[in-house]
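Chapter review: from sequence to fold.
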Amino acid sequence: MQGKIGLEEHFALEETLQDSAIFVPADYWPELKARLTDIHVRRLAEMDRHGMEMMILSLNAPAVQAIGSAQAALDLSRRANDFLAEQVVRNPTRFQAFAALPMQEPELATRELERCVNDLGFRGALVNGFSDAPQANQCLYYDLPQYRPFWRVCESLGVPFYLHPRNPLPGWSQIYDGHPWLLGPTWAFGQETAVHALRLMGSGLFDECPNLQIILGHMGEGLPYSMWRIDNRNAWVKTPPKYPAKKKIGEYFQQNFYLTTSGNFRTQTLIDAILEIGADRILFSTDWPFENVDHAAVWFDACAISEADRRKIGRDNAARLFGLNV
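The token string follows.
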């Protein structure tokens, strides 16, 4: 189909490029590097060839989130956001932007989100998972109480928050010892992000911020397939949930989450996601430059779903969610 909109589509600054080098063999790095640093030439050509009208761009991972100093994280966020704003101005009908945020310090993240949305016209934020704490080998997850003011502002601004993966810290990765192939997009990305999303759901965040919307990539990081079991394990044992949230986890998943097709181009998985969360909450994406635009688009254009759902997922849902004039 023509007119597709993608929203997990990455670029890199020179100072964040090396963060992506681990995801391909060394002889593929020149190609990935060229893809990450290009916006207006190769990227646009790929979009034109495969029916993509627009990409919402975001910084590569983990970048800002892997910096222990909140001030240094803010400085990098602002450089990335200012650079991205300049790129969007050059071609706003084809590109829009997600903010990078210094989530190490919620107040700084809040101010930067407000600046990006109110002053730069960004469509939301994409954050690369947990943030490094100042203490070595410590993580900050966003269900922690100090993040509630940030989430209230995010909800009031009416913009979504894309929770993008990163690998667990080395000190938290014993389960992968001797099996490095499980890291990254093969498994660890999805596992890490799914647990973070479940923490947000169980924390009561969405009782306090019922209109807040979170986006997960890769067809939901495995959560659609597991949602029934999360809410119904040992159902014969009549005990209240052990989390603060007031509803079942599946209710928050259906009301406060969107999923994208980024990097997960399989029809069976898409149909499962549609059955679990509904076609109105699924969004086309490619995960360029880590995945190919043609792999995403050729699959999506031919996958066995209705044409009405294809149009919703391909563009209409994104246009509505982000208020795009397309």
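Two observations follow directly from the output. The chain has a mean pLDDT of 97. The two ends are 15 Å apart (CA to CA).
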